[in-house]
Amino acid sequence: MPTQAKSEKIEELTEKLGRAQIAILVQTQGMTVKDMSELRAKMRASKIELQVAKNTLLRIASERNNMNELDTKILQGQTTVAFGYDDEVAAAKAVVDFVSGSKIAVLKSGILGGRALTADQLEKIGKLPGGKNNARAQVVGTVQGPLASTYGLLTAPLRDLCYIFQARAEQLNGGTSAE
């Protein structure tokens, strides 16, 4: 039976997991206080909330959010959770950059939209250029380019016909345009 403090912690983790766009699990066991302070400062600058969580409480909170895909085997050792509430790509980029520069911290896993991510998938997300808005802009540009070409192709005959009518009307008026 969990104590009152543990129940409150589970509720807090459940709420944060439900609200976060992305949650990244990092093993920080063995990091010094200086390293942890540096990690917290970098995450704060990127608008990422960092919290050290007990593995059992994190497992219970993830189950309460119906995140059953999370591999519970990775919940060993000290687990620090980085909660990104705004931009998933920017959050992953910040955490991956820190972990790649650290000799101690290791990416464990992540949760994106209720689905579990592996460390490799997180690294790939972290290497995407720009942020979420940049990725959206690339998708829109990819779709918009062919649509604009198709629109131009379909409207060209009608536009050309209008030009022909206008030229003929000017020719019949004796070269003067109607004003």
Automatic annotation (TrEMBL):
<keyword id="KW-0689">Ribosomal protein</keyword>
<dbReference type="GO" id="GO:0006412">
    <property type="term" value="P:translation"/>
</dbReference>
<comment type="similarity">
    <text>Belongs to the universal ribosomal protein uL10 family.</text>
</comment>
<comment type="function">
    <text>Forms part of the ribosomal stalk, playing a central role in the interaction of the ribosome with GTP-bound translation factors.</text>
</comment>
<dbReference type="GO" id="GO:0005840">
    <property type="term" value="C:ribosome"/>
</dbReference>
<keyword id="KW-0694">RNA-binding</keyword>
<dbReference type="InterPro" id="IPR043141">
    <property type="entry name" value="Ribosomal_uL10-like_sf"/>
</dbReference>
<comment type="subunit">
    <text>Part of the ribosomal stalk of the 50S ribosomal subunit. The N-terminus interacts with L11 and the large rRNA to form the base of the stalk. The C-terminus forms an elongated spine to which L12 dimers bind in a sequential fashion forming a multimeric L10(L12)X complex.</text>
</comment>
<dbReference type="GO" id="GO:1990904">
    <property type="term" value="C:ribonucleoprotein complex"/>
</dbReference>
<dbReference type="InterPro" id="IPR001790">
    <property type="entry name" value="Ribosomal_uL10"/>
</dbReference>
<dbReference type="GO" id="GO:0070180">
    <property type="term" value="F:large ribosomal subunit rRNA binding"/>
</dbReference>
<dbReference type="InterPro" id="IPR047865">
    <property type="entry name" value="Ribosomal_uL10_bac_type"/>
</dbReference>
<dbReference type="InterPro" id="IPR022973">
    <property type="entry name" value="Ribosomal_uL10_bac"/>
</dbReference>
<dbReference type="Pfam" id="PF00466">
    <property type="entry name" value="Ribosomal_L10"/>
</dbReference>
<protein>
    <recommendedName>
        <fullName>Large ribosomal subunit protein uL10</fullName>
    </recommendedName>
</protein>
<keyword id="KW-0699">rRNA-binding</keyword>
<keyword id="KW-0687">Ribonucleoprotein</keyword>
